[in-house]
Amino acid sequence: MNDSRLINTLKLLSPQEMTRLNDFVQSPIHNKHKDVTTLFSYLKKHLYSKRNKLSLENVFRFLYGQIPFEAQQLHLVNSYLTKVVEDFLAWNEWEQSKDNEQLALLKTYNKRRVVDGFSRVFKNFQKRQEKSGIRNADYFRTQYNTQFQLFTFSETQGRKKEVNLPEVSKNLDIYYCIERLRVACFQLSQQAVYKQDYDIGMLKEVLTYVLKNELFTIPAIGIYYYGYLSLAKPTEEAYFVKLKQLMKTKEYCFEISDLKEIYLMAINYCIRRINSNDTLYLSEVFELYKLGIENGVFLENKILSRWTYNNIIIAGLKLKAFDWVEQFIFDYKSYLAQKHQKSSFSFNLAKFYFEKGDYKAAMPLLLQMEYDDFFHNMVAKTTLAKMYYELKELDALENLLNSMKVYIQRQKVIGYHKENYRNILRFMKRLMYLNFKDADKKNLLREAIIETKVLTEKKWFLDKLG
């Protein structure tokens, strides 16, 4: 059972969630099988024990004593427990939001025609919604649902004068506009990476409708409206200025999860500008990362994504903010997921030493680590290649470039990154064998590098050419 879906799911839960799951399993409403309760108790106790503790035979023996082993019987109990765990996960997610509970209660009172109960829950619900200050997509979706419940309830009570269809329609339109623009931002980001076209559906109509009715004055619409236009028209900086202004002045309208998404959208725009050789946006992206860290936007369950950790450090190093970056590398190591902590820390410390010119400290950190990810591998190998070049270790560089070429060819879906790293290999080979005394060949290489659009190491190559 060591690598079963059930075991892997249980290992994802926090200690608090395991305690709640235990109560859930013990409840006869959710579980009526004694064997399921016994199996859960055993798995919880031995979840991180030696592997043989979770062997099928040992688990079966604990459940049924010395009777002959029957895989089918154990499979059945395992399936029952898996179903209970999945029910718990769904309930736990649902229960996190008070709105879900109140809306469900409102629907129940509506169905049962309980006038006093419906009126009380509706009024309290509206008061709490207004008091929260949050005005994200979920707010307008909830408003639509509650107003629709009021509409159907009023219909059954014969209150024709209290029909609130304008409110129902308004909240539905606002919610749809937010979500359509939000998805459009995702689509633009995906297109940039994977060169994939998407059906834009009613996006053009939504953009026209928002502009005509000035719905961009609603913060949640404005954020994604200007975010989309920034990504769609990156050279028209006025849209990004509007986006930043809304981020600064209307931050209180959004949940932390919304803000993370919005920050990443703004960062994505900055990265596009940087990739178009607009280096002024290095400062913009670095400030966004720093502000997001200060506000806790990038922490999810007190965990910082290794990708965000990497990107913040890369931005800081490009700006030569060495003191800040060094402090950040060490301060936020403990916020990384345990399984990535050592490799991400070593990887970024190596990058830090490399950028400071301390190859003696950087090279061992890169050579001793094996990375489970294409991007970590390629950045590590590219950094090694640059050090070999600087140290004139051309044989080692030649071998490394050949191994990188084979590694890239084996990758199936890496989008424009494949093009980028192929360009890096191509120019590194040309640089290795370049006769620097031949001005014509030197200029030809410089022009080729400048004209290549997808090349993350463009600055480094140009620096080497002088």
Notes on the structure:
There is one protein chain. By secondary structure, the protein is mainly α. It is 73% helix and 1% strand. The chain has three domains: 91 residues, no CATH class; 144 residues, no CATH class; 97 residues, no CATH class. The protein has 23 helices and two strands. The protein has a two-stranded antiparallel sheet with strand order 1-2. α8 packs antiparallel against α9 and α19 runs antiparallel to α20. The chain is flat, with a radius of gyration of 28 Å. It starts with a helix and ends with a helix.
Short structural summary:
The protein has 466 residues and is mainly α. It is 73% helix and 1% strand. It folds into 3 domains: 5-95, no CATH class; 133-276, no CATH class; 370-466, no CATH class.
**Order of strands in the sheet with most strands:** 1-2
- The fraction of residues in strands falls at under 5%
The beta-strand count equals 2
Helix content: over 70%
**Alpha-carbon distance between the two ends:** 60 Å
Q: Give the number of helices.
A: 23
| Total domains | 3
**Mass-distribution shape:** flat
Main pleated-sheet profile: 2 strands, antiparallel
**What is the string of helix and strand elements?**
HHHHHHHHHHHHHHEEHHHHHHHHH
Question: What structural category do the secondary elements indicate?
Answer: mainly alpha
Would you tell me the overall average pLDDT? Answer: 92
Unreliable sequence segments:
none
Radius of gyration, rounded?
A: 28 Å
